[in-house]
Amino acid sequence: MAKPEMEKFMAEWAKTHGQLEMPGAMLMKYGPEDYVGATIAVRATLYFKGSHTAEAREALCECFDAYRAVADDHLKWLWRDEPPSGPDKYAYAKAPELRAMVKKMDEDHNFGFTYTGGEKPHDASPWLFSTFGRPAWEARLPGRGPDSLIFSLPQEVVEANPALFQKLFVDFCKLLNVKHGHGGFALNLSAVRGEPNEPTEAFMVSKMAGLDAGPGHIIGGLPGRDVEHHLVTVGWLTAINHSMVEKLGGLFALRSELPASWFAQYDYGNGIVIQAGPKPEIAPVELDSKPAIYVLPAMALKDVRLSGEISLHYGSKDGEPRLTGLPAMEWLHRFDAPEEELMRYKTKLLNEPKLTPDSTLPDRL
Fold first, then answer.
1. What long-range pairs does 215-221 form, CB within 8 A, spacing at least 24?
2. pLDDT tens across 104-121, in order?
3. Which of 13, 100, 166, 286 is found 20 to 30 A from 141 (Cα to Cα)?
């Protein structure tokens, strides 16, 4: 997109409160198709271990209790990953309670539940709560990566409730004793038709640096232990565990790089959550692809971020864009800056939005 086109798109996106819906398989050779393939949301991805245990499963149920207190009226469908009994799809209004389903599972069943708010079962929606939990037999194999929880809300809900998303994020980090995680703007893809909508995501993240990318539980080209011990990305909210904090020189060193007027830290027990600014930034590439509010934490956390080759998508079929190879690496390092330019970004930060009392949680460190 040229700059005028991008500015027009951003104006249209703002008018719709971020609810732009993109048709299914929009950039595939056979597309587009008549369903919602992708839509913008404010999304979190949390990585943790042990979803085959009773303790973690109860914690996930508690997370869903808190999420549905906000989302209950908007959820329409439940998809299940390899259920031990019953169908893999329910209309939400007719679905059994999550705890009732969990009680019928043993530790060697996948803990895979995806609740979504699309009008059709395969529509993408900004309302999303999705778990990826390895069965016990797989979790015990060497080199397996962490489990994950993904949840999202529409932009207008986040804007109308300036501390809601942060509270859910921090509370879920506490409940799950997370290894790490991140949250901010993202493009939610169809929960069951992800692959044909990956090109839409690849195109959009090339235009908006503030968008998260990838499915949240499949990181190709890296051993699981690398994902377990390294941040996939930084965002509006970034959770890091205590061992990461120590590797970075401790909390004092981190806070010296992240001024308190723009950055807040919250304790979640196993680590801290860093909030960058009062609300998530979309960072349109044609206007400002490197906002200081994201460059400074990206560089401060550089030593605990992923750096190897990764693939966030499947391979291209007909030349459509995908986040594999160089495009994936460019996305991974999109907020990097030369060390000698950090002072310029610290100066640039002065013109970016500061935290406000209503956009921060009361128990910040």
1. 215/189, 215/312, 216/45, 216/130, 216/132, 216/148, 216/150, 217/132, 217/147, 217/148, 217/150, 219/145, 219/306, 219/310, 219/311, 219/312, 220/310, 220/311, 220/312, 220/324, 221/308, 221/309, 221/310, 221/311
2. 999 999 999 999 999 999
3. 100
